[in-house]
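Quality-control log, excerpt.
Job 1 of 2 completed; input and output follow.
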Amino acid sequence: MEKIIECVPNFSEGRDKRVIEAIVHAAASMPGAYVLHTDSGEAANRTVVTFAGEPEAVAEAAFRAVKTAAERIDMRRQTGEHPRIGATDVLPLVPVRGVSLAECAGLARRLAERVGGELGIPVYCYEAAASAPYRKGLESCRRGEYEGLRAKLEDPAWRPDFGPAVWNESVARTGASVIGARNFLGAVNFNLAPTDDRAGDLAVAKAIAKEIRAASGSDWSLPGVKAIGWWIGEYGFAQVSTNLTDMRATGLAQAYGAVSAAARRYGRSVTGTEAIGLLPQWALDDAGRCFGDSGDGATAAAIRGLGLDTMRSQGRVFDPDEKIVERVLAAKMTRKVPR
């Protein structure tokens, strides 16, 4: 393939395996689109699916996945720890090779128009596909979440870019979607060592998240970082959950160091890192250099230094051949099996 893009939609279902499998199957059913990874969380009640391939094939695979999610997920009954506004909560297109961010943005807007028109889902376009500066941030488009969507649709400033601007039975079921284009984003959660004070652990996670997020303007804020603190019941500890939206500005090692330093200020410690979805090879290489290895062992050094392989007892194993996007895509394309 001369042109490759990645799509990383987040669906508001992390518990019902039949629903998750149906969504993944829908994406994989499109020739030329390769499903690389699926990551589900019960407490978050959320699944992140990563697929890549030729731009038009990926866009069609995305539409099929969104359609299936709309048919299978009822937002009126959905609950979970993760913020969300709809069944397909957010869907970014990401340039990988031979495609510009601007081209991905144009494709994202065409996909959003189709989702709004054919599926009757309100769609907000964000990041590079945003129609106005105040809509660029995901957190702005998702503010109020599903519970506040009815009022949001009544606000002229928040009329959807595509799809219905009225609350009806269909919208009540599907919620809205946020579709756009962005560069690689690192979704990583930093684990706090549990103590006997669960409420205190959660409060510390939230305090750290507030300090380090770029929007806070604090002495410890990190460029390009979005963060929240939460308690994950299935793991038994609190996490500082982050989106590293510009890993050239704040990489994996820098974020880990900042969260660890903040945890120490609160008398806590970081025990490891959970990577959600896939990471690009260069991000691991950069982290490995920070941990003292700039050669062939950089990936292994990053895994050790970040504690990416410390959650085996929780069933979370960081296998580079399954978690690094270039390796997974190369393997899939070599086998020529688009699923």
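Job 2 of 2 completed; input and output follow.
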Amino acid sequence: MNQNVGSTDKRVRTAVGAVAGAVSLATLAGSAPLPDIAAPVLGVVAIAMLATAATGTCGLYSVLGVDTCPADAGGSR
């Protein structure tokens, strides 16, 4: 599968994933004043964001036809 997540998109996904994971853990620990359902939802969001950033491929982008990789990127394209 071709990569469709560019470098800036990867950085944003990594940051969002890290924040969502931290808030999820804080909710589980009782430090964040969020409903209990927020912890697993944020955990799934964190895993999805970090996985797509690590692999460089987003399934939703593939379905929608979105590609944030530069056209001249060598290697994996």
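Post-run check on job 2. The mean pLDDT is 90.
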